[in-house]
Design goal:
This protein has 151 residues and is mainly alpha-helical. 61% of the residues lie in helices and 3% in strands.
Length: 151
């Protein structure tokens, strides 16, 4: 459906953004990246597409460090959360990034607003592989079963 809308309105950033989410969710990562690159020339707010591109890149252990820094730099212009700015100094160290995310989850002044909490969860998800023993910052995930812990 969104691909059809792109045909009708190829210059709409919101359609491109939605298409990037759809491609990413469908694990069509190359298509998502190509659509992100296409969207860079479109008018409109590119924060959400850039966040998604940042997370897609973080999910790749072999991510290009320069490209990751470039995406972080683009986002740092609009996201002024202290934890996010600190992530920029440790983009090459996944464990350090996870430590920052844990600290952000504990300290609302450091972690930011409600929107920042979603960003933290998405970032942690991008950093962790399904077989990782990492215990997420909120402590509600059971790494041995890969499902939420019972309350």
């Amino acid at each position: 459906m969104v691909e059809q809308l792109k045909t009708i309105e190829p210059l709409a950033m919101f359609i491109s953004r939605d298409l990037q989410y759809d491609y990413t969710a469908a694990r069509r990562i190359d298509d998502a990246e190509a659509e992100y690159q296409r969207s860079l020339s479109l008018e409109g707010n590119d924060e959400q597409p850039t966040v998604l591109a940042f997370h897609r890149m973080l999910a790749r252990p072999d991510a290009d460090p320069k490209a990751l820094r470039d995406l972080h730099g683009r986002l740092a212009k609009t996201l002024d959360w202290p934890f996010f700015l600190d992530l920029g100094g440790v983009l090459n160290d996944r464990d350090a990034m996870l430590a920052i995310l844990r600290e952000a989850a504990k300290d609302p002044a450091y972690g930011g607003d409600r929107r920042a909490i979603v960003f933290q969860m998405e970032t942690a998800d991008a950093l962790v592989t399904p077989t990782s023993p990492w215990m997420p910052c909120c402590g509600t995930w059971n790494p041995s079963t890969g499902s939420p812990k019972a309350a």
